[in-house]
Design brief:
With 348 residues, the protein is α/β, with parallel strands linked by helices. The protein is 43% helix and 17% strand. Bound molecules: nicotinamide-adenine-dinucleotide (NAD).
Length: 348
């Protein structure tokens, strides 16, 4: 039985990955390691917590002794590393927290993998999940390919870029078998409502202002989270060692157009007059260092591994909105307490 460590499995993307692996691979023992920060929530994976091949470990990837001890104890065959500080706005107010978790945490996992695999890398794999934000910003045209030079602009993207470089360096220097994927913006169920789509769904439900940064012309490529989980499964099993794959939705939206689409759909779902939610749009002071446009060329993963998104943006957005409307208790729980303080500081 293969033992796979998934880090950050109580977070947004990690919970979808953990569910996919636990339910699909009964021959794997899945260890979900998560510190349960504000972004981690065991409710996200409640439906699989009693599966025999599932184990939860609460702990901090920054704590090297703890990481070494669990690697010694469980002798993992593979690592799928998603745990991170993931919100750009928070990285602007507390960059060091991002260095600790995203850089030092990744280093600890690399060192522990190297220690237990002892240079015998047959059937072993370290899979590092990264972001398209490491490539910096695009102008109005062009796409990020796997060959685009790294050019991160925010403390978040700089910390992710740094961790990507260390993973690659461990591959080159010590032969560690790794794969890296750089993915565009995800959306879907269980997304913490500090990120654009769930934040705006929550605010529309509660008739609160919709804070759009700058002129709203920032462009992002959006991918449904379950399609990302499928890509991660594929790359983990069929990706080539020492390779990077870009993952994207072929689905670019300017923020303001996306917000207007969301408003239209929410008006229908909530039985409001068309145009009601749009009145909540409020332009707020821009985020410093805000990247204008991200767009991914996902040709390589498509050609080499046969992956492409399975749902259209319309379908994915419908599923997402429906999920939030039928999980209002989840939304209430995660937006109580500390979230309120953060929200007031960020948008007041
Ligand atoms: N969300 C996106 O659009 C997106 C896009 C591309 C790549 N990514 C990457 O995917 C990964 C997951 O992103 P997400 O959006 O699910 O993030 P998230 O913030 O929802 O979840 C992160 C998880 O990591 C855990 N965690 C944080 N610090 C930890 C620590 N020190 N030790 C152990 N666990 C810790 C949190 O408790 C949480 O469960 C990240 O590496 C992120 O950079 C995200």
């Amino acid at each position: 039985m293969k033992k796979i460590l998934i880090t950050g499995g109580a977070g947004f993307i990690g919970s979808h990955v953990v569910r996919r692996f636990v339910t699909k691979y009964s021959n794997y023992k899945i260890y979900n390691l998560d510190m349960l920060t504000y972004a981690g929530n065991l409710e996200n994976i409640k439906d699989i917590e009693n599966f025999e091949n599932y184990n939860f470990i609460k702990g901090d990837i920054v704590d090297a002794d703890f990481i070494n001890s669990i690697f010694q104890e469980y002798q993992f065959d593979g690592v799928i590393h998603l745990a991170a500080e993931s919100h750009v706005d928070r990285s602007i107010t507390d960059p060091l927290a991002f260095v600790k978790t995203n850089v030092i945490g990744t280093m600890n996992l690399l060192n522990a993998s190297k220690m237990i695999w002892k240079d015998d890398y047959s059937n072993k794999r370290f899979y590092h999940i990264s972001t398209d934000e490491v490539y910096g910003t695009l102008g109005e045209t062009g796409l990020f390919t796997e060959k685009t030079a790294y050019d991160p602009n925010s403390p978040y993207s700089a910390s992710k870029a740094s961790s990507d470089h260390f993973v690659r360096a461990y591959g080159e220097t010590y032969g560690l078998p790794y794969v890296i994927t750089n993915c565009s913006n995800n959306y879907g169920p269980n997304h913490f409502p500090e990120k654009l789509i769930p934040l705006f769904i929550n605010n529309i439900i509660n008739n609160k202002p919709l804070p759009v940064y700058g002129d709203g012309k920032y462009t992002r490529d959006w991918l449904f989270v379950k399609d990302h989980a499928v890509a991660i499964d594929l790359v983990f099993h069929e990706g080539k060692n020492h390779e990077t794959y870009n993952i994207g939705g072929f689905n670019e939206w300017q923020n303001i157009d996306l917000v207007k689409l969301l408003c239209k759909k929410m008006d229908v779902k909530l039985g409001r007059q068309q145009g009601d939610s749009e009145k909540l749009i409020t332009y707020v002071k821009d985020r410093p260092g805000h990247d204008l446009r991200y767009a991914i060329d996902a040709t390589k993963i498509n050609k080499e591994l046969g992956w492409k998104p399975s749902v259209t943006f319309e379908e994915g957005l419908e599923q997402t909105i429906d999920w939030y409307l039928s999980n209002e208790e989840w939304l209430r729980n995660v937006t109580s307490g500390e979230y309120q303080k953060y929200y007031e500081k960020q948008y007041s």
